[in-house]
Amino acid sequence: MSAYDELMAFNRVTAALGSVAGRTGWDQETVMPPGSSDLRAEEMAALEEVLHARKTDPRIGEWLAAAQPADEVAKASLRHIRRIYDRSVKVPSGLATAIAKHTSKGQGIWAKARAADDFASFAPTLTEMIRLKREEAAALADGGDLYDALLEDYEPGTTGAELQTLFDAMRPRLVALREKILGADAPVGLDHEFDEAGQLALSTTLAKTFGYDLNIGRIDKAVHPFSSGSGTDVRITTRTSLRDPFNCFYSTIHEVGHATYEQNIDRAYELTPLGQGVSMGVHESQSRIYENQLGRSRAFTSWLYGQMRDQFGDFGVADAETFYRIVNRVSSGFIRTEADEVHYNLHIMLRFDLERQLIAGDLEVADLEDAWNTRFEQDFGVAVDKPSNGVLQDVHWSFGLFGYFPTYSLGNVYAGNLHHALRAAVPDLDAQLATGDTSAATGWLKENLQQFGGLREPRETIAKACGFEPTEAPLLDYLDAKFADLYSL
Amino acid sequence: MSAYDELMAFNRVTAALGSVAGRTGWDQETVMPPGSSDLRAEEMAALEEVLHARKTDPRIGEWLAAAQPADEVAKASLRHIRRIYDRSVKVPSGLATAIAKHTSKGQGIWAKARAADDFASFAPTLTEMIRLKREEAAALADGGDLYDALLEDYEPGTTGAELQTLFDAMRPRLVALREKILGADAPVGLDHEFDEAGQLALSTTLAKTFGYDLNIGRIDKAVHPFSSGSGTDVRITTRTSLRDPFNCFYSTIHEVGHATYEQNIDRAYELTPLGQGVSMGVHESQSRIYENQLGRSRAFTSWLYGQMRDQFGDFGVADAETFYRIVNRVSSGFIRTEADEVHYNLHIMLRFDLERQLIAGDLEVADLEDAWNTRFEQDFGVAVDKPSNGVLQDVHWSFGLFGYFPTYSLGNVYAGNLHHALRAAVPDLDAQLATGDTSAATGWLKENLQQFGGLREPRETIAKACGFEPTEAPLLDYLDAKFADLYSL
After folding, report:
1. What does pTM read for this prediction?
2. What was the ipTM of the complex prediction?
3. Which residues does chain A have within 8 Å of residue B50's beta carbon, measured at their own beta carbons?
4. B272: which chain A residues are within 8 Å (Cβ-Cβ)?
5. What is the pLDDT of residues B94-122, one digit of tens each?
6. Dmax over Cα atoms in chain A, in whole Å?
7. Do A233 and B36 count as a contact with CB atoms less than 8 A apart?
């Protein structure tokens, strides 16, 4: 066997074990008995021990040095393996263990602090987490920017400075748009109860409508919606809410965006370094275009309105146009995960700026709550009333996920670009969506983006699919047009 | 750290990985999407590769040589680890791989052969399997008996000769009993349809009634009922059959016997070598005493009759005594898994004799079907009509499980002994069972047997619980008395 073949065979077993670890996480969130969590923690730690040993196996360095890539696929595969290997060996194992331990502790402390609305009780844990992550970033950065080093884990090839430029261009237009909208008349919301069985049935219909393949997937209920797995076993979860069926339906469509991306990657890449979505940002572009540009379009909601009438009978909404307005209602809220298309990215920019300062050492945890509240009032025009509606709302920092937040907005920007290209490629898209037919849209995404998995770098993946370099403009133009129309601005 | 502590820490991680592998198997049988089987096969192979490497890690030999056991628990732990290590290193890795590959191929070929009722198409695969298992047995046996070497995997400390003596003592009495019963009037069976939801609801009630802890367990539907896992995550499956709810109920009770054994092991033993049921025979003693001596008793069925009336209304059975007769109906059938208490062990003895001859080289695969059919007619008085009702009915040999079958009957014998001791310890057991209260019985089993896990050797585990050395007599006496009464013999 050549060095390349040996490396790929070794990596394939690692990938298979990683797939098992992912599914063990799925099990934990969906079907695990409540009293099994201590045992599960030991199982996850054992899997991590094995995976870490394999990822830092010195033979990888030797194989990488000797491997001769024969083609584009081999080159891309080596690029992925080299990136992971270089990063794994740079972080001292004692530090990696300390971070893992602190992470598993951190989430519990954060959850308690959030429940008690008491930031001070989480602050020491967060301070220590930032200290550890700065140490990790320093080990990774080779003298470069610390935040960029962390960002590389989620969005390879993108820097904090690039994101800053992007977000600086977006923020004034979004703030202006939200102000105009909130000055206009808002539609009322739903006022009806929607039975759980009906929500789950329609949720499954929606998943299939967006191309989710249940032969290699499944849908379960969980506290948080998520997608898990790659290739031929990709599972999603959803949740229901008696008075808010959109929570269920748009969670499902969002996760189906993630899940079909994984399902649609070229089958030949399964268990290879190319067999997964290429970055968090590109992943989010898929979930977002499914959820928003397609799922919340006037055309698609007109079909969904009929589906909901079929499922639930008269639910107090007179016509499809009113329904469309309710689906896209804009309202100022504290919580990121409940935000509409206009507010969402403002939530992210707030977090991005704060976490970048925390990692740079320019902001102390002691000043974080004030900084959050000041910035929130500035961008959202409302004062945060309690930490659970502010600085304590997201789990990410308690897990040490610094550099993750901006990929959400990058995904939205990428979705805006893909949507622009898709509209040009499929001129009668609305006519199709109005009949519940997403196949041209999802087919275009599969053909031009999803199938390639990790073959290209993230930004290149988007640019190749679109036929142009991505910018913030298509997303902002889309939002301006959509909400000017909806709110008669 | 002492050598003992290092060994135990290493073994704990291996046990946690083994637990993950077990649950991955559970996932495959219950919730895995249908199109995921190729990916799953690679995942299982990757886990096996890791587990095999850990089980044969040469450091185990060094730790074993240096370890100083401090107490009974440590001695028993070392005994288990040494047994597994010695066996793992004796089998050449090429042979282990060949067996693993042939096993994964064998099941598919067997399933096709069974569906086609064509033994000849399975014969070459079985011949090769026997060749491989004989080679494995020779590597393990150190010049000793080949069959004993294989049996050691399922029932450590028991030999084929001992089982032969046991079965020789049982067979004439069982054959005589079945002849007497089949000459008497048989009760008619059920003639009613029982909805699935009702079966599953009552199945869950029964599981709880027998002490199954759903806080550290769960019940799912699967094609085959099984129990999976140890300690704080033990899951069972059951199945339903529209016209035969006993299939569901007694499968559940049987699996609950296995599962509560695992759940009731001293929690301090979790993820240690003592944290699992000690042998297949002892395991089966638990499933069988729950299912038969308790679950099919006149007292318990009188309570179950009421439960079924509550769940399903009038289902055409006039009274509890008739119900008891139907539950315990004896009939001559081809299929082991559907056999009643009288016939079951005759099925096992047939397999035991044939597989022992196959492994000894005294019977060729070419002659196996004839040998099966001849023996079946001898013991059951009926001619086998087709291979799927005969030599092709069980999956075991296609998996290379030689030495597994006799543990079923050994379990029945052990259950007979435990039942004898239990009746002496809990004189008013029937009064309790008649109210659906199994707590004294299951509590006695937990206290005297289940909690000890792997602390004692299998036979010693039974003897300590009973207070006497196990023999075949209590089971046969129980069967004679029960069916003499039921059939007025």
Report:
1. 0.95
2. 0.94
3. 17, 50
4. none
5. 999 899 889 888 889 999 999 999 999 99
6. 69
7. yes
